Amino acid sequence: MVLRVRGVVQGVGFRPFVHRVATRLGLRGWVRNDSEGVLIRAVGPAPAVTALVRALRAEAPPAARVQDVEARPARAADPGPAASFTIARSGPGGLPASMALPPDLALCSDCQSELLDPSDRRHRYPFINCTQCGPRYSILERLPYDRPNTTMRAFRMCPACAAEYSDPRSRRFHAQPNACPVCGPRIALRKASGGELAGEAALNEAAGVLSRGGILAVKGIGGYHLMVDAGSEKAVAELRRRKHRDEKPFAVMFPSLEAVRLSAETPAGAEELLSSPAAPIVLLRRRPDAALAPALAPRNPWVGALLPYSPLHVLLLAAFARPVVATSANLAEEPLCTDEDEARRRLAGIADSFLDHDRPIAHPVDDSVVRLSSTGPILLRRARGYAPAPLRLPGRIEGSWLCVGAQMKSTVAVAAHDSLVLSPHIGDLDAGPTRAVFQRTATMLGEIHGSEFTRVVCDRHPDYASTQYARATGLPCVAVQHHLAHILACLLEHGRKADGVLGVAWDGTGYGEDGTIWGGEFLLLRNGQARRFAHLRPFRLPGGEAAIRDGRRTALGLAHAVGDAGFGPLGRRLGFSEAEAGLLGTMLARGVNSPVTTSAGRLFDAVGALLGLGFRNRFEGQIPLALEAAAAGHAGKATALPFPLRPAPGGAGEAAELDWEPLVAALEAGRLGGCDPAELAASFHHALARGIAAAARAAGAGTVALGGGCFQNALLLDLASAALKAEGFEVLAPRELPPNDGAIAAGQALGALWGLTTVQQS
């Protein structure tokens, strides 16, 4: 019997696992990697082969994810079985993109025990790993995943490591990054002012830099972190100054789970995520008495916590013994630094010292970010530990497609055969260096899968850098509407069809079919078509991009839309001068640089400004985050506020509108009546959830899929899910993919597969 296994089955100890099970069952044959996944030839009694098939799913290594197992009789062309069961040389074969590239995995408990065991030959070795942990995607240069195809090929295994690699009884049997102090990578501490230290002296001096309040650049698995003492206000403020980072929160790496508990509320679900093989950053509510610098996250109740996930991090945090800031080593909006020369050049004037190593990084990989909700985890940034893991397509495609995603939260995807592989988070494409990483990633995905792309899929926005790249390839190009892609991404991860589904796509901005800025959309998917069933009532954004950064402008846009006679006084209350308010009023009246939008994200901005909870977005989503934070502690005190669904002004056949005017008027009346802004913020969230449920009732679809960046808001997601479920709707929410634009490339693939690329206006 020949067994084909697809999924995350390379770089996770799958072949050694198959070897052990087959040997235990007395089977002959072989197992090997190829470009399609893992292939097995199993010869022996039928019950033993059946037991092997069952074990492939039930007993797979923890980091593996088996998508499917196909069985067929052996053919004459298949290599014959050996006298025993062996691990065969990898072969090419198969359809290139139908398997997953292995993600990087956090240090496992077995390796950590050895790392700290004075009697072990890898005691305190900063690059210890096995088949269950260590670098994968970040060192992979081409498929299949074998040592000669990784950056570890530069390190020839010593006899002891080679013996482990060849021993089926060893935990390092066919562990591709296997190494030790004799034959593997090494660390060095280099000061910006000159001088170099190695080994234990490098670790001790790195901890000393942190203790003295300095800024340390640390080369990790997928790139550099900038680290400072997280308890030092002076050190954190200096990092902000040098990094040109105003108020965006910094992540904090804690020495242990116990240290996390001292600084943040840590429910069981959070502890499980922090300690998982993915080891993401998890957003937790900070304790009032936490010994953390206020400058870590100004006016923000959350802390982004993570644990040391590489042996180098474990040793450094043990030496320093306190939490450290662990933020991407770059200037604002630039991509990660990945090699020593680049780090010296780009971090000059920022880092005081550099803790380096000589294992090359093939691809930059950022830390993943997750937050919790009552309905489950919300993946905000899909990167290290999660990507690139595969998703099954509900059909087969010809050729190999490149899906280039959106402008913000950029990711790219390759779709071939019946699978899709989505890259890790790249970043926003506004900056030239990030666009260069985007282009390298797109090229790399083609090269690593060994095939030429036959089609490119993009967003309908003509000015996105990703769209322009797609058009410039010269390949046949398909454009998928932005908000439709959000909903299709949700359907893809849940394995659902686009029939009888109401998609709620709420985000900041996206290019609408009518040329306006959409962002508060209800898309009804039925009979192979998508129709814009409803949307938020439109309003204008005075100053366009400037209004995205300044919620006060959006608040004036709402006032203008309802003909508010108090426009002038509102402008003064929001801090505008008479002249500024007058200019903005003229812009709105004439429609000059004041695009029309239905954006839910901008509605959050305006309400946050009206309630005095924030005026400017100094980083993306700052005002909505403040609005959610205020509401979270008062969700039980919310009052019912109106948010009616009305027929569109255009008459029959047009999309209905969720009218925010009565809701905003009620919030203003509550503010004038002395209501607590936090309670009003909670009432606002409840009203939005009831509005979503009202639209679902009117649409008559049994399933509601939620997508778009607004559903990063855990309170909104929880309230909307509860309101919908209470009325009998099935609710699909993003889990394996982010709700934000990081999932757009995945949705584009499904749109192109189904020929579902546009949204009908009526």
Largest sheet: 11 strands, mixed
**Overall tally of domains:** 4
Shape category: globular
**Order of the strands making up the biggest sheet:** 7-6-14-8-9-13-10-12-11-15-16
Task: Indicate the structural class.
Answer: alpha/beta
Q: Taking Cα atoms only, what radius of gyration do you get, to the nearest Å?
A: 27 Å
The CATH class of the largest domain turns out to be Alpha Beta
Write down how many β-strands occur, each being a DSSP E stretch of 2 or more residues: 29
In CATH terms, the superfamily of the largest domain is ATPase, nucleotide binding domain
Uncertain residue ranges? 93-99
CATH topology of the largest domain: Nucleotidyltransferase, domain 5
Mean pLDDT: 93
Report helical residue fraction. Answer: 25-40%
Strand portion, in percent? Answer: 15-25%
> N-to-C terminal Cα separation, in Å?
54 Å
| CATH architectural name of the largest domain | 2-Layer Sandwich
* Number of distinct helices: 23
Question: What does this entry show, briefly?
Answer:
The chain is of the alpha/beta class and 762 residues long. The chain is 33% helix and 21% strand.
Quick tags:
762 residues; alpha/beta; Alpha-Beta Plaits; DHBP synthase; Nucleotidyltransferase, domain 5; 4 domains; eleven-stranded mixed β-sheet; seven-stranded mixed β-sheet; 23 helices
Chain-wise SSE layout:
Blueprint: E1 2-8, H1 14-24, E2 28-34, E3 37-43, H2 46-58, E4 65-72, E5 85-87, H3 109-115, H4 159-166, E6 187-191, E7 196-198, H5 199-211, E8 216-219, E9 224-229, H6 233-243, E10 251-253, H7 257-263, H8 268-274, E11 281-285, E12 302-306, H9 311-320, E13 324-328, H10 340-346, E14 353-357, E15 369-373, E16 376-381, E17 390-403, E18 413-422, H11 432-448, E19 455-459, H12 465-472, E20 477-480, H13 482-494, E21 501-511, E22 517-526, E23 529-536, E24 539-540, H14 545-549, H15 551-561, H16 567-573, H17 578-590, E25 596-597, H18 600-610, H19 622-632, E26 645-646, E27 656-658, H20 661-672, H21 677-699, E28 703-707, H22 714-726, E29 730-732, H23 744-754
Parallel strand pairs: 2-5, 8-14, 10-12, 11-15, 17-19, 19-20, 21-28, 23-27, 28-29
Antiparallel strand pairs: 1-3, 1-4, 2-3, 6-7, 6-14, 8-9, 9-13, 10-13, 11-12, 15-16, 17-18, 21-22, 22-23, 24-25, 26-27
Helix pairs in contact: 5-9, 13-23, 15-17, 15-18, 16-17, 18-19, 19-21, 20-21, 21-22
